[in-house]
């Protein structure tokens, strides 16, 4: 039976917490299934279960690992491994079930923390504990943890030398962590779930309960609790904010995030990597923006968690909610809004620029064409006499999904050929202005993409670009490909990462113009292009096509 011995966590932090000492794991023999040579099994094993899926009221897919949910500036599994690293634990067994590759993408092989990971894949996400008997074989003690239950390194330090189970301050809920001898796991079977495992641990001899303070443990059991566990990080305690992040008067932001000076932020707010807050947006208080979140002008967000890959359009109001992609879960009322199922452009007010060209834009195009018409006629006669091809090629640009599954709506545009001179690139604009006059594209908008390139975008990018006008001028991207599409050097293996960075940067730049821009903002962009700080890329369709061909040949 469980002993009645119970003690509380001290308020102080572990002396090991915050240590920067990194240990490179040595090379080990892998003769045994667990990666150890026979007879060299360690005396202690650390087994982390990342098999549990997120609660049903959190707006994620049914098989989404709960360990990938946000916990302040990071996600649960990252915080867990940081605490293990602080204790100097370097050999970790990781048990996964659903979406194992998503977890491997986050953890790698543990090199980020100086660890060596051994991966175990199980079919039953709810009953994965049977393999504990095999892992614990030949060891003296096993530290068992769940990647979706974070506990501080101070809690873990007290579990290193004795049979211990961590519970909340009231002593009524298991924190998901326990340390016990290998013999205590003899009764674990294939039918053992988390509740039964906790019962077996409590029934073991000399198991002590460790009551963790509220600030020393966190678990997002549902949407409401996921919101609540963000508060310690939103307190902006030094231990909860990565050292590389930038402190601001309203909170903290990743160096890779971008917040407009004209945005209104009321702290505390955390802005993750890749997040972009437009001018006029109102964010805060108590808001966590995970990575790759776009908040458009006019959006108003407070007391909410916005997960990665979310676009919040103009005039959206998000208060006391968890949002991801096109799904919003309102905490309290339990109401869930699905943008796709409820024609959510009305619910979210994502007033992206519709396909079409205003009369004023067409009138301006007519004026430009009238001025350039004499030059164009002379150029056309010359090219006809010399047999030189036209200044442009025709390109079917995808604009939106078709009502037939697997098909896309498209519009035929004039684009520059893949090979052209500087003068030819300037001459191409006459064809682009013709597209504006015909209402096929606007002056400022997203870049043209083929059907294959549109399908290659993530679902979130597709939703943002659906119905957005294709532009003659595009927002400058943060990076350009170093490969010349005319030379075909993009197919070099050394340039694959550079090509990927270029394609991703083009999508982010297009998102900037997928929402309405003010007149002065558009004139500013025009001045940037004309002044030469960032020239437009009229041949971007050809560049994307070259990259696509390169990827097909590589495959």
Topology readout:
Layout: E1 6-8, E2 44-50, E3 70-71, E4 74-75, H1 76-86, E5 91-96, H2 100-107, E6 116-121, H3 132-135, E7 141-146, E8 149-151, H4 153-157, E9 164-167, E10 174-181, H5 194-203, E11 208-211, E12 217-219, H6 223-228, H7 231-234, E13 246-248, E14 251-253, E15 258-259, E16 264-265, E17 269-271, E18 276-277, E19 282-283, E20 287-289, E21 293-295, E22 300-302, E23 304-306, E24 310-312, E25 317-319, E26 321-324, E27 327-330, E28 336-338, H8 345-348, H9 359-386, E29 393-401, E30 408-415, H10 422-437, E31 442-444, H11 451-456, H12 459-465, E32 471-473, H13 496-512, H14 519-530, H15 540-554
Parallel strand pairs: 1-11, 2-5, 2-7, 5-6, 9-11, 14-17, 15-18, 16-19, 17-20, 18-21, 19-22, 20-23, 21-24, 22-25, 23-26, 31-32
Antiparallel strand pairs: 3-4, 7-10, 8-12, 9-10, 13-14, 26-27, 27-28, 29-30
Helix pairs in contact: 9-10
Distance between the termini: 60 Å
Oligomer: single chain
Helix content range: 25-40%
- The dominant shape is elongated
Whole-number mean pLDDT: 75
Radius of gyration: 28 Å
Total helical elements: 15
- Which percent range describes the beta-strand content? 15-25%
Strand order of the largest sheet: 1-11-9-10-7-2-5-6
How many distinct beta strands? 32
Unreliable stretches: 1-33, 35-41, 340-355, 480-499, 533-544
Strand-pairing-aware structural class = alpha/beta
Q: Let me know the largest β-sheet.
A: 8 strands, mixed
């Amino acid at each position: 039976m469980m002993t009645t011995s119970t003690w509380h966590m001290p308020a102080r932090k572990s002396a090991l917490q915050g240590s920067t000492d990194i240990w490179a794991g040595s090379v080990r023999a892998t003769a045994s299934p667990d990666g150890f040579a026979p007879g060299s099994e360690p005396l202690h094993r650390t087994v982390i279960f990342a098999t549990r899926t997120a609660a049903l009221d959190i707006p994620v897919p049914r098989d989404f690992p709960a360990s990938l949910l946000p916990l302040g500036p990071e996600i649960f599994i990252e915080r867990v491994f940081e605490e293990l690293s602080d204790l100097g634990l370097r050999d970790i067994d990781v048990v996964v079930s659903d979406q194992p590759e998503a977890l491997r993408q986050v953890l790698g092989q543990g090199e980020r923390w100086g660890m060596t990971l051994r991966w175990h894949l199980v079919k039953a996400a709810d009953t994965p504990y049977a393999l504990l008997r095999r892992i614990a074989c030949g060891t003296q003690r096993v530290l068992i943890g769940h990647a979706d239950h974070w506990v501080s390194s101070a809690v873990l330090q007290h579990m290193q030398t004795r049979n211990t189970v961590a519970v909340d301050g009231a002593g009524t809920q298991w924190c998901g962590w326990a340390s016990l001898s290998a013999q205590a796991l003899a009764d674990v079977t294939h039918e053992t779930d988390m509740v039964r495992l906790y019962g077996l641990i409590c029934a073991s001899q000399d198991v002590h309960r460790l009551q963790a303070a509220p600030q020393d443990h966190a678990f997002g059991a549902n949407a409401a609790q996921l919101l609540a566990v963000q508060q310690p990080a939103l307190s902006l305690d030094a231990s909860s904010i990565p050292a590389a992040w930038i402190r601001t008067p309203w909170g903290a932001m990743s160096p890779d995030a971008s917040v407009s000076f004209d945005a209104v932020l009321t702290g505390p707010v955390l802005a993750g990597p890749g997040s972009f807050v437009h001018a006029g947006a109102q964010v805060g208080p108590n808001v966590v923006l995970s990575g790759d979140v776009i908040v458009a002008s006019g959006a108003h967000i407070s007391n909410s968690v916005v997960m990665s890959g979310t676009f919040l359009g103009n005039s959206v109001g998000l208060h006391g909610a968890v949002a991801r992609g096109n799904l919003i879960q309102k905490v309290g009322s339990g109401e869930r809004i699905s943008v796709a199922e409820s024609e959510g452009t009305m619910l979210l007010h994502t007033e992206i620029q519709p396909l079409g060209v205003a009369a004023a834009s067409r009138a301006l195009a007519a004026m430009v064409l009238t001025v350039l018409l004499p030059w164009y006629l002379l150029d056309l006669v010359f090219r006809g006499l010399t047999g030189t091809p036209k200044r442009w090629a025709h390109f079917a640009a995808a604009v939106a999904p078709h009502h037939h599954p697997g098909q896309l709506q498209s519009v035929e545009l004039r684009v520059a050929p893949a090979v052209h001179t500087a003068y030819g690139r300037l001459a191409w604009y006459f064809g682009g202005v013709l597209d504006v006059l015909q209402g096929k594209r606007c002056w400022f908008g997203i870049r043209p993409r083929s059907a294959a390139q549109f399908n290659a975008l993530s679902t979130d990018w597709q939703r943002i670009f659906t119905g957005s006008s294709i532009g003659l001028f595009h927002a400058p991207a943060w990076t350009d490909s170093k490969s010349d599409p005319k030379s075909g050097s993009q197919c070099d293996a050394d340039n694959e990462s550079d090509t990927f960075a270029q394609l991703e940067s083009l999508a982010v730049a297009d998102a900037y113009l997928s929402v309405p821009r003010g007149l002065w903002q558009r004139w500013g962009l025009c001045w940037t292009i004309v002044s030469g700080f960032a020239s437009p890329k009229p041949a971007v369709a050809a560049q994307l096509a070259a990259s696509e061909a390169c990827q097909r040949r590589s495959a």
